[in-house]
């Protein structure tokens, strides 16, 4: 059984659920394992075989965390554009810059 591979698959499953907390927790676990492996003697063949896949899984989960942060930022931007923050500009509501109804605040 490949433990780090299973942790990577768990991260992917949680990422599809948009559970960024769980994905970040798996990343922390993988980074901790990688740091502990780096302390050991790298000349041992059995460690060398495991370091590559562990590093690759860690890199993949880092990309997942990054992609989730982009998706979260994108969804926040969409809600702002749809009037979620600052009111509906088309209906004369205020924007985040304090301009109401498209007129200058000084007029």
TrEMBL record:
It comes from Chlamydomonas eustigma. It holds the Pfam family Translin. Residues 87-107 are annotated as: Disordered. It comes from the Eukaryota. GO terms for molecular function: sequence-specific DNA binding. This is Uncharacterized protein. InterPro entries: Translin_C, Translin_fam, Translin_sf.
